[in-house]
Design goal:
The complex is a heterodimer of chains A (about 90) and B (about 280).
Chain A: H1 2-7, E1 9-14, H2 18-24, H3 28-40, E2 45-50, E3 56-61, H4 69-78
Antiparallel strand pairs in A: 2-3
Chain B: E1 21-22, E2 31-38, E3 43-44, H1 48-51, H2 53-56, E4 64-68, H3 69-72, E5 81-82, E6 86-89, H4 91-98, E7 105-106, E8 118-126, E9 130-138, E10 140-142, E11 148-151, E12 154-161, E13 167-173, E14 181-190, E15 196-204, E16 208-211, E17 222-223, H5 226-237, E18 245-246, H6 248-258, E19 262-267
Chain lengths: ~90, ~280
């Protein structure tokens, strides 16, 4: 949990809302990510990790997380390697 | 498996609190009438609410009922509490009220599945004339024909006279948001685990509520803002609520701007309630 708080931006969304976000959001990057997240969605609960550049790095369906849920979740979070990732895109960085 | 099962537990985060502690009391002779409202589902993912007799036109078991102070006593804290302080409530106390809606109200058990059961309360506001307690409770209804009805949560609001312990107002309601009720309907077959096979749906029920007559708004000398109070109760159920969950659009932009990866959870029902 500490890792999520420190190293990630976190969000949840109803999968059924993604098509309308993909069609109507003001920001084109939001529209694109919404469309791709929806394409990749695994019912019923899908945890996804995206790079800051908008690349889907890994995802895991809750129904596939059984005895090894904790290890698999850490593996999911490990999908982002800051040492092998390009810097934030122009226009970003507060 | 619910997401909460693997988003690891954290300690309860304390809320903003005042320095002064209070001990709300109840007049043992107090009584209050509650009216019940239960509307059908307005929209759902798979249409099961319309197809299933037990779900099509739900009706409250007792449209009106008068409750005595004794039923409310378990909602009070065991000792003095400050504004914002959270305490656990015996869920059986809430179930008594929910049985005004349907006798099949349950707090835990097989039909509850992986959701987090229980009831928590906090002292939300203090004024010269009244105390306001806010509650959050998770319960399910075992309906007719083996149908299981899982409301997202019930939010309770109890207004008590500060000096005399009068029952000024009470409501216990399912917050109206898209989506807020999950249902399991038996298919009439046995599943691979030997239990009845179920089909599931999730939808929006605009009103499911017990409420007393409206009362004039109270003057508060100290009050926790509504959203902070709700967050404190949410955190009592879900340790992951301690994270700063941003709305989707905001999160995508923040991820890019901060150069941090985005941890995104996609669901068919809301993350922070018992309907998913």
């Amino acid at each position: 949990m500490e890792r999520l708080a420190d190293d990630f931006v976190t969000s949840w969304v109803l999968a059924k809302h993604l098509p309308s976000i993909a069609a109507e959001a003001k920001d084109p990057r939001v529209r694109e990510l919404a469309a791709r997240a929806h394409e990749s969605y695994l019912y019923p609960v899908d945890s996804q990790v995206w790079s800051p550049q908008g690349e889907l790095l890994d995802h895991a369906c809750a129904n596939d997380l059984h005895g090894n849920a904790r290890d698999r979740y850490h593996e999911l979070l490990d999908a982002y390697d800051p040492d092998h990732s390009p810097p934030p895109a122009p226009g970003g960085g507060k | 498996m619910p997401l909460s099962a693997f988003l690891l537990p954290l300690a309860l985060v304390p809320s903003a609190q005042s320095a002064e502690a209070h001990s709300p009391t109840l007049d043992p002779e107090a009584r209050i009438e509650l009216e019940a409202f239960w509307e059908p589902c307005r929209s759902s993912l798979y249409g099961l609410f319309d197809e299933t007799p037990a779900l099509r036109a739900p009706r409250a078991a007792e449209p009106r009922r008068t409750w005595s102070a004794e039923a409310f006593r378990p909602f009070l804290p065991q000792g003095p509490v400050e504004v914002g302080e959270v305490w656990r409530v015996d869920s059986e106390a809430v179930l008594g009220f929910l049985r005004q809606l349907h006798p099949g109200a349950q707090g835990r058990g097989e039909s509850f599945g992986g959701e987090v059961p229980g009831t928590f309360a906090l002292l939300r506001a203090v004024g010269p004339e009244a105390f306001e307690l806010l509650l959050r409770s998770h319960a399910v209804f075992q309906l007719e024909d083996g149908v299981i009805y899982k409301p997202a949560q019930f939010e309770g609001r109890l207004l008590l006279g500060r000096e005399d312990g009068a029952l000024l107002a009470f409501s216990l309601a399912l917050p109206s948001r898209d989506t807020n009720v999950d249902v399991n309907v038996p298919l009439g077959q046995t599943g691979p685990n030997g239990r009845p096979a179920m089909s599931a749906d999730i939808g929006w029920v605009p009103r499911l509520e017990l409420t007393s007559a409206a009362t004039a708004a109270s003057d508060w000398t100290l009050a926790l803002p509504e959203e902070e109070a709700r967050l404190a109760l949410r955190r009592a159920f879900y340790p992951f609520a301690a994270l700063d969950w941003l709305p989707f659009e905001e999160a995508v932009i923040a991820s890019r701007e901060r150069g941090k990866p985005l941890h995104l959870v996609l669901l068919f029902g809301c993350l922070d309630d018992a309907s998913c």
